Amino acid sequence: MNKEEFIKETKKLGINLTNPMLEKLEIYANFLLEYNEHTNLTAIKTKEDVYLKHFYDSLTLVKIASLETGKILDVGTGAGFPGLVLAIVFPNLEVDLLDSNNKKITFLQQCIERLKIKNVHLIYSRAEDYTKIHREEYDYVTSRAVAELRILLELNIPCLKVKGQFLVMKGNIKEEIAEAKTTLEILSSKIIKVEIVTLPKENSTRTLLNIEKEAKTDPKYPRTYDKIKKRMLKK
Ligand code: SAM
């Protein structure tokens, strides 16, 4: 996807990118590809793919949530997807990017300095350690391609405010949705929107889920990662 196609397709999502936003995205794409030559951050190697599979894909979140303002945590952000793209395009959104991989956080630190943006904060931590302490704090939490849905729910729901929304980005997760029924109930959360997104040009599909939290989370969640993986939540 070249820049003109990117602008056209994001317009269809209802996003009007300003020149300063486009300049920042270009700095981000160039720095990501340059850094990726010596430190493995992403399998994507061309600028056209960065615009399609990282930038455009991150922005499809607007199909399931209004992201103009509020506080969002991107858990397992990697090289900043979707969180850093959202921070550039929605300057009134307060964005926290969390990852347990120091290599990714170091890249993000340098990237943010180059972008000169102020609405981003980096967190070097395991998700389960962070959300054990930061309870009911965020309007939104998001995760793209991080773990199975039941694991993500236990990691991420605790730090959402009541009525906050967990925005999940994954491949095909029909089965995972069915398996997550009990976990959703225990964590007082419900799926309020499912959107299947087809990427322009290559026609691959992704699933976006909007999961709303309906009541405060029991302080015993999240459990340790080993426990979460070994024994999924049961009533
Ligand atoms: N979200 C990014 C994207 O879509 O390009 C990165 C996806 S990458 C496949 C998964 C990321 O999640 C990795 O950077 C990994 O370090 C991070 N991660 C996995 N489990 C985590 C946990 N429990 N706490 C914090 N980060 C985690």
Describe the structure.
This protein has ten helices and seven strands. The model has no long low-confidence stretch (mean pLDDT 96). Helix 5 links the parallel strand 2 and strand 3. The chain has one domain (66-230): Rossmann fold, CATH 3.40.50.150. With 235 residues, the chain is α/β, with parallel strands linked by helices. A seven-stranded mixed sheet has the order 3-2-1-4-5-7-6, with helices on both faces. It starts with a helix and ends in a 5-residue tail after the last helix. It has helices at residues 3-12, 19-36, 47-59, 83-89, 102-115, 127-133, 149-156, 174-179, 181-186, 225-230; strands spanning 70-75, 93-99, 120-124, 138-144, 160-170, 189-198, 205-213. Helix 2 packs antiparallel against helix 5. The chain binds S-adenosylmethionine. S-adenosylmethionine binds next to strand 2 and helix 6.
CATH superfamily: Vaccinia Virus protein VP39
CATH structural fold name: Rossmann fold
Class by helix and strand content? alpha/beta
Rounded to the nearest angstrom, the radius of gyration is 17 Å
| Spatial sequence of strands, sheet with the most strands | 3-2-1-4-5-7-6
Distance between the termini: 47 Å
Q: Enumerate the spans where pLDDT stays under 50 for 5 or more consecutive residues.
A: none
Shape: globular
Work out the strand percent. Answer: 15-25%
Q: How many strand elements? A: 7
- In this structure, how is the largest beta sheet organized? 7 strands, mixed
Order of helices and strands: HHHEHEHEHEHEHHEEH
Determine the number of helices (DSSP H or I, runs of at least 4 residues). 10
User: CATH top level?
Assistant: Alpha Beta
Would you identify the CATH architecture? Answer: 3-Layer(aba) Sandwich
**Overall pLDDT:** 96
In the residues, how many domains can be counted?
1
Helix content: 40-55%
The unique ligands bound to this protein are:
S-adenosylmethionine
